């Protein structure tokens, strides 16, 4: 009989965006050394997801294992634009080190960082070999960002062969269905609905359901799901961006959400687009004047 997976609940909480629950339930007894490192990585990545970058930077010291050092690099990268170049330089150096370069968490962090940089080919250089469900799921995300749903589907097939019911396999399936559109939107909605019945409701699940509703033209339902998500986390960029889109379709003012997004996520694509549109509008007004 297979040994019980002591980190199953912790992983699941992290994958589905229940970050505080992952932190609160991080004290799992009887872990092996490798499992302890994985547990610490998941807890610290949950802190990163909640924006507590400095806590992670302060707590992981230079004697920590490679996966934890990689998580610290991710916290440094996300904490300030000033750290970006130095972090990427360290990342490249570690990836080139034969002793640690193939570490799955280091490759995962590289994939996340280069995906943020929109350097998708560089991201794939480190993630494409797979090796873990998280790396395969990240490959799906990267290919979808590149508008290559055909390659994303191949990665999903690999995940389905490993474990069809795995939370990440189901999530990747929903992402692909949303990207393909049409009749697949309903399938994506059912996946998020299934999550909401089985697990704690999170911003990630609510946003997933809301995006499906918007694709199906159900903007009122989408708005109520997104407002529920906003109550859970008033600073979540995904929720605010989706509320902007939803409000526009409902003919409601969206300026409050754009202002909130500007304050908490000034680098968000939607903020940049809104600023460009404002500048173009101001230029057009000046030209008329």
From TrEMBL:
GO terms for molecular function: structural molecule activity. The keyword Transport applies. One of its GO terms (biological process) is endoplasmic reticulum to Golgi vesicle-mediated transport. It is found in: Cytoplasmic vesicle, COPI-coated vesicle membrane; Golgi apparatus membrane. The keyword Transport applies. It is a peripheral membrane protein. Keywords: Cytoplasm, Cytoplasmic vesicle, ER-Golgi transport, Golgi apparatus, Membrane, Protein transport, Transport. InterPro entries: Coatomer_esu (IPR006822), TPR-like_helical_dom_sf (IPR011990). GO terms for cellular component: COPI vesicle coat; Golgi membrane. The coatomer is a cytosolic protein complex that binds to dilysine motifs and reversibly associates with Golgi non-clathrin-coated vesicles, which further mediate biosynthetic protein transport from the ER, via the Golgi up to the trans Golgi network. The coatomer complex is required for budding from Golgi membranes, and is essential for the retrograde Golgi-to-ER transport of dilysine-tagged proteins. Belongs to the COPE family. PANTHER family: COATOMER SUBUNIT EPSILON. Oligomeric complex that consists of at least the alpha, beta, beta', gamma, delta, epsilon and zeta subunits. This is Coatomer subunit epsilon.
